[in-house]
């Protein structure tokens, strides 16, 4: 992979993680009285934000690993998290954030974290925390 391309991929991956952390933080620190915001199911409200400081530290460590090239780039390329595919995934993620649909944010984050956590181990803790947040959410019954 060319150095210029690698630097661009690093920037995109870091930006995705920054935006993901920001949205997840908003979800776990939200006020339950804000209309239109998703809410935790009553029995789970006391659990959040929970260990948010540790999760934020894992996000920070993951970004530092990317910045310092402490990542198996061959693996990252193999899972489609470089080049044009990464740019496409970033645009999709950005649109998901723009639409502000929490369930879609969780779905897209699942895909990204599921892939990257194998190459960037601290993201596994982020992924598990996000899965617990998702499980604690109250969604309308269909």
Task: Please give a handful of descriptors for the protein shown.
single chain, 142 residues, mainly alpha, two-stranded antiparallel sheet, 3% strand, globular
Description:
23% of the residues are buried. The model has no long low-confidence stretch (mean pLDDT 88). Helices cover 68% and strands 3% of the residues. The chain contains six helices and two strands, in the order αβαααααβ. The longest helix is centred in the first third of the chain and has 27 residues, at 3-29. Helix 1 (3-29) runs antiparallel to helix 2 (52-67) and helix 4 packs antiparallel against helix 5. The chain has one domain (3-29, 46-138). The chain has 142 residues and is mainly α. A two-stranded antiparallel sheet has the order 1-2. The radius of gyration is 16 Å and the shape is globular.
State the helicity in percent bands. Answer: 55-70%
Instruction: Tell me the number of strands.
Output: 2
Principal-axes shape call: globular
- Biggest β-sheet, characterized? 2 strands, antiparallel
Radius of gyration: 16 Å
Number of helices: 6
What letter string, H or E per element, gives the SSE order? HEHHHHHE
- Percentage of residues in strands: under 5%
Oligomer: single chain
Number of structural units classed as domains? 1
Strand order of the largest sheet: 1-2
Structural class: mainly alpha
State mean pLDDT (0 to 100 scale). 88
Distance between the termini: 46 Å
Low-pLDDT residue intervals, each spanning 5 or more residues = none
């Amino acid at each position: 992979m060319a150095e210029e391309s690698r630097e661009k991929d690093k920037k995109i991956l870091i930006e995705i993680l920054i935006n993901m952390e920001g949205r997840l933080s908003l979800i776990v620190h939200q006020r339950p009285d804000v209309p239109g915001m998703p809410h935790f199911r009553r029995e789970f409200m006391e659990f959040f934000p929970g260990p948010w400081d540790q999760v934020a530290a894992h996000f920070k460590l993951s970004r530092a690993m990317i910045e310092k090239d402490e990542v198996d780039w061959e693996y990252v390329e193999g899972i489609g998290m470089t080049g044009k595919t990464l740019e496409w995934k970033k645009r999709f993620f950005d649109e998901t954030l723009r639409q502000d649909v929490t369930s879609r944010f969780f779905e897209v984050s699942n895909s990204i974290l599921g892939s990257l956590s194998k190459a960037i181990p601290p993201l596994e803790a982020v992924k598990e925390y996000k899965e617990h947040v998702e499980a604690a959410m109250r969604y309308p019954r269909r």
